[in-house]
Amino acid sequence: DADVTQTPRNRITKTGKRIMLECSQTKGHDRMYWYRQDPGLGLRLIYYSFDVKDINKGEISDGYSVSRQAQAKFSLSLESAIPNQTALYFCATGPAGVDTQYFGPGTRLTVL
Amino acid sequence: QKEVEQNSGPLSVPEGAIASLNCTYSDRGSQSFFWYRQYSGKSPELIMFIYSNGDKEDGRFTAQLNKASQYVSLLIRDSQPSDSATYLCAASPIFSGAGSYQLTFGKGTKLSVIP
User: Fold this and answer.
1) How far does the CA of residue A103 sit from the closest CA of chain B (Å)?
2) A95 to chain B: which residues are within 8 Å by CB?
C-alpha cells in the first residue's frame, strides 16, 4: 500500500460547490502539507500542519481551509469552488527535523 | 515576494552527456535548497538537498550552491533516458536540521535525454 494516499484522484465539479480533498499517510510523520501545481506557475504551498493543533497558512491559502483530523489525516476544503482553483493538488508529509517531503499521487481537480 | 527562477526548457542532452540545470533565488534569507524530480503525470520526489556553499555529490548527481550569487545548480553526469523529467528547484528559509518547510518552488526545467 502507498505511504501517502489522496482521495479522490480525479474530480470534476461545478462553480460554487463545496469540495473536500483527503490525504492519509502511514509514514508516521508529524508534518503534513497541501500544495497546488499549475502549468506555468509551479508548485505552491497552500497550508501546512506540524501536528493536530498546529496549522499554518502557506503562500496561497485564500479560498481554502484545512482540517487535521488526526496525525495521519489532513483534509483540504474548497468552500465554494471557482474555476481558477482548477489544478493538480498534492499532499505531502515529512518528519520533524528532517528535510525530505514525501508527496502523494495528487488529485486532479477541475472546476467548471 | 520570494521567487525561485528556473529556465523552463526543454533542455535536451544526448545520452551519456552532462546535464546542467540552473536555479536562482531572490530571498537572501534562504538557507536550504532542494532538487525534486517529477516524471510526467507523477508526484515530485526529492533527489538532493544542499545547505552549504560548494558542491555536494550523490552518485551521478552533484548539487552546487553559491549563496553570494544566489545560485543553485544540479549536474547530472552520464545522463540516461530515464533521467528525462522535470526538475524542480526549491528554497527554504529554514536552517538545516529544523526540517525545512515553507518551500518556495521554481516552475521547473524539463530535461530530455536523447538516446
Assistant:
1) 6
2) 99
